[in-house]
Amino acid sequence: MSLKLENIHKFFGHITALKNVNLEVNKGELLVILGTSGSGKSTLLRIISGLEKPDKGRVLINGRDVTYEPPYNRPTSMVFQDLALFPHLNVFENIAFGLKIRKYDRREVEIRVKEVAEMLRINDLLDRSVAKISGGQRQRVALARSLVLHPDILLLDEPLGALDMKLRMDMWVELKKLQRQVANTWVFVTHDQHEAMALADKIAVINTGEIQQLGTKDEVYDSPASLFVASFIGEMNFLEGRVTEVKGDVLKVETPVGEVEATMQRVKGRPETGARVTVGIRPEKIQITKTPNDCINTLSARVSEINFSGVLTTYELELPDGSRIKIQTTSRQMGYRQGDKVYISWSPEDVNVYVTQ
Ligand code: ADP
Ligand code: MG
């Protein structure tokens, strides 16, 4: 285990910034911590790096308890949100800074800086002032400054925040490659679910200081552990209802638009008959047909909007009770028009059920 957090709590006065955080990251894995602003992401990174001490709990790196070790005694390095470059130093000196402090000899510093600068394709900028390079280049310098230390764990606190969308998306691909190449452990913090999905091996979803789910990208997307995760990652259609039957592997829910069946493996908690639940179905898991099919979960609907946006076509459908449901498909021409009466259906295996009461 490269990194293990046990039962971490952190308070700032009456604010609980982190509550009972448990995390495990294997060597060479890229963990993304995903949460909204103020959810505790930076505090968590600062505790891993040693810039902050937890009020309770332990930090283990490579099996060693480092909870009370200062940052310089930990094999970690952090890329900060605002990058925190030294404006009076050039690119080379910025990257070399940590090595010089650690008293590496001049030749070793030169070799390492060149190596990492090449990896990040900034080798022709080494004598430039960091004030005179682009935002994307500055971002690479900040990354190089950390990677040059060969940390066992690289901590990245929303490092792409300042870049425009296109540049960010290019960086996702590049960072993923880079991480595989250097093969150390990365903990990457972001509030952007698309960034999380693009980068992660594993995702930890954090909300108000609590980890709501830790899992592979597939687990978090296909089987969100809570309503919060379900609504935070990807799109989800929600229907409110009441459990009418629990039998073997099948749960039946009465909703205002008809009965919905779900397989028990996707049900969170153990709802009894009569329990209030929210049912979630991903837009791409719903089929749309002209005539009713013999699927278990079939509803009638009317097409209210069709929007083609490149790869995906999104249909917004109106259900008999006036509520709306979203469907996404990669096929462009399905022959439906606004106002058409259609049938929608989905498999009980694609239904997530959350007990709300
Ligand atoms: P995030 O990085 O997810 O936006 P932070 O970890 O920065 O969240 O903050 C989590 C919570 O802790 C917030 O409510 C924030 O205001 C509070 N907080 C963070 N650092 C301090 C501090 N040094 N003093 C007081 N409150 C803090
Ligand atoms: Mg932050």
Structural commentary:
Helix 2 (91-101) packs across helix 3 and helix 2 runs parallel beside helix 4. The relative contact order is 0.12. The protein has 2 domains: 3-231, P-loop containing nucleotide triphosphate hydrolases (Rossmann fold, 3-Layer(aba) Sandwich), CATH 3.40.50; 235-355, OB fold (Dihydrolipoamide Acetyltransferase, E2P) (Beta Barrel). The protein is elongated and about 75 Å long. The two termini are 38 Å apart. By secondary structure, the chain is of the alpha+beta class. The strands form 4 sheets. A 6-stranded mixed β-sheet has the order 6-7-8-3-9-10, with helices on both faces. A 6-stranded mixed β-sheet has the order 13-12-11-15-21-14, with no helix packed on it. It has 8 helices and 21 strands. The model has no long low-confidence stretch (mean pLDDT 94). The chain has helices spanning 41-49, 91-101, 106-119, 135-147, 165-182, 193-199, 217-222, 227-232, and strands at residues 3-12, 15-25, 30-34, 56-61, 64-65, 76-79, 153-157, 185-190, 202-207, 210-216, 237-247, 250-255, 258-263, 267-268, 276-281, 287-289, 297-308, 313-318, 324-329, 341-346, 351-355. 24% of the residues lie in helices and 37% in strands. Residues 41-42, 157 line the site of magnesium ion.
